[in-house]
């Protein structure tokens, strides 16, 4: 089985939903031109990476971008913050198939926060939902958001739940990883090495394909993490230049005769 994935390393604004919509429209056009089955976008690519967004504008924007993708026949793994019907705000990857059917969402689990006794930050701003998998074009996929994957100990007081391994045991063959990382600090060079090493090690350890994209703003600065596709051997199948708006498209071939290395007999696939 095959899944053709387009990744969008695109700039994300935290205070201009209209600008984000224009950027997402370009990304959908690019994915459609490349014949993609699904387009992956960065964390908060519609709303901005913030819980303080205009919920009405984001809801209207979501209708617009999903309609455009549906007309183009492109599925979405859309990073956005969003208020659900339960009134809680989630930092999400929202999954849609090429016909526009909403498959559900992954909500960020390993949220960032300060390391004090009373952590401050997004750990208090976003609600959590259980980890789950999705069926996309007949393939079981999972989604993770930024620190969900690399569990940077400088960014969160929460313990590492090894979500890639959990997804592998649940039957996922591909993880769609939506990122909006910090950059420009004195820690950035070390963080880049940590992020890349984690992507490679977790792909290999869990025998997963990982597709990862980061926010490209500011467009003249290096991203916080590399973007592209890693194989289950932990090797880059394709990757972008780390600066500016970039796109990649890759066909992931899944061998249905083999399961992820971490699956135990009798566990769901």
Short description:
The protein is of the alpha/beta class and 269 residues long. It contains five helices and twelve strands.
Q: How does this structure look, described?
A:
This protein is an alpha/beta fold. It has one domain: Nitrilase/N-carbamoyl-D-aminoacid amidohydrolase. Helices cover 24% and strands 26% of the residues. It has a six-stranded mixed beta sheet with strand order 5-4-3-2-1-12, with helices on one face. Strands 6-7-8-9-10-11 form a six-stranded mixed beta sheet. A hairpin with a 5-residue loop joins strand 4 and strand 5. The longest helix has 19 residues. The protein is globular, with a radius of gyration of 17 Å. The C terminus is likely disordered.
- The number of helical segments is 5
Distance between the termini: 15 Å
Kindly provide the radius of gyration, computed on alpha-carbon positions and rounded to a whole number of angstroms.
17 Å
Q: What is the architecture at the second tier of CATH?
A: 4-Layer Sandwich
N-to-C SSE string, H for helix and E for strand = EHEHEEEEEHHEHEEEE
Kindly name the structural category.
alpha/beta
Mean pLDDT: 93
- CATH class reads Alpha Beta
Q: What is the CATH topology?
A: Nitrilase/N-carbamoyl-D-aminoacid amidohydrolase
Anisotropy-based shape: globular
């Amino acid at each position: 089985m095959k899944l053709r994935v387009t990744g969008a390393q695109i700039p994300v604004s935290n205070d201009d939903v209209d600008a984000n919509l224009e950027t997402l429209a370009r990304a959908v056009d690019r994915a459609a031109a490349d014949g993609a089955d699904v387009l992956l976008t960065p964390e908060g690519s519609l709303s901005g990476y913030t819980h303080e967004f205009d919920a009405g504008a984001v809801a209207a924007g979501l209708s617009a971008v999903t309609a455009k993708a549906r007309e183009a026949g492109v599925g979405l793994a859309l990073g956005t913050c969003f208020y659900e019907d339960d009134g809680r705000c989630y930092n999400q990857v929202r999954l849609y198939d090429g016909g526009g059917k909403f498959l559900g969402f992954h909500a960020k689990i390993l949220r960032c926060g300060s390391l004090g006794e009373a952590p401050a930050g997004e750990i208090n701003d976003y609600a959590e939902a259980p980890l789950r998998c999705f069926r996309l074009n007949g393939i079981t996929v999972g989604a993770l958001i930024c620190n969900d994957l690399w569990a940077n100990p400088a960014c969160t007081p929460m313990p590492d739940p090894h979500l890639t391994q959990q997804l592998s045991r649940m039957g996922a063959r591909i993880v769609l990883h939506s990122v909006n990382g910090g950059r420009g600090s004195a820690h950035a060079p070390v963080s880049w090495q940590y992020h890349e090493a984690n992507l490679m090690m977790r792909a290999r350890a869990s025998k997963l394909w990982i597709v990862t994209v980061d926010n490209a703003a500011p467009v003249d600065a290096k991203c916080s993490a590399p973007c592209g596709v890693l194989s289950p051997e932990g090797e880059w199948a394709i990757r972008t230049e780390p600066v500016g708006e970039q796109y990649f498209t890759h066909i992931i071939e899944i061998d249905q005769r083999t399961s992820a290395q971490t699956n135990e007999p009798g566990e769901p696939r």
